[in-house]
Amino acid sequence: NAIYLNAKSGVFVDSQAMPDIIGNTIKSNCMHGICVTGDNTSTHIVDNSIFKNLETGILITHNGAAKELKSNNICDNHTSGIEIAFNSQCASINHNKIHRNGEFGLLIHSE
User: Fold this and answer.
1) 20 to 30 A from 22, CA-CA: which of 7, 10, 57, 97?
2) What sign does the CA torsion over 60, 9, 71, 68 have?
3) Higher pLDDT, 60 or 42
C-alpha cells in the first residue's frame, strides 16, 4: 500500500485494534506516519518505509503498545523517527534504519 498526503496520520490504530502493518510506504502525512494509541498489545509494524511526515514517523502514545517494530526504514520526519510516550511501550525494536529525522531518531519518555 502507498499511504500519503492525508490530513492527519497515515495510519491510526485505536484501542483494541491489533493490526499487522507490513510492507507499506507511508509518507508526507500532515501528522504522524503511524500512530498507535490506547490499550493495544499486539500491533506489529514491520518492513515499512515511513518518511517525510510533518510530525513523528511512528508514535506510540496514551497507553498504546506495539509488540514489534522491525526492519522499517524511518527517515526525514519533522520531529522523531520513533516516539514512545505517555505510559506506552514496545516489546521489541530491532533492525530498523532510523536516520535524518528533525529532532530524535528514537525518543522514549518515562511517563
Assistant:
1) 7
2) positive
3) 60
Percent of the chain with pLDDT over 70: 99
pTM, entire model: 0.96
Q: In the numeric block, which cell numbers belong to residue 68?
A: 514489534
Indicate the SS3 state at residue 24.
coil
Name the DSSP class of 39.
Answer: S
CA–centroid distance for 93 within its chain: 11
Could you list the beta-strand ranges (E) of 1-111: 2-4, 11-13, 20-22, 25-27, 34-37, 43-46, 49-51, 58-61, 65-70, 73-75, 82-84, 89-90, 93-94, 97-99, 106-108
Tell how far CA 3 is from the center of its chain.
Answer: 13
| Residue found by looking up cell 514491520 in the block | 46
Q: Which residues contact 11 (CB under 8 A, 6 or more apart)?
A: 3, 21, 24, 26, 33, 34, 35
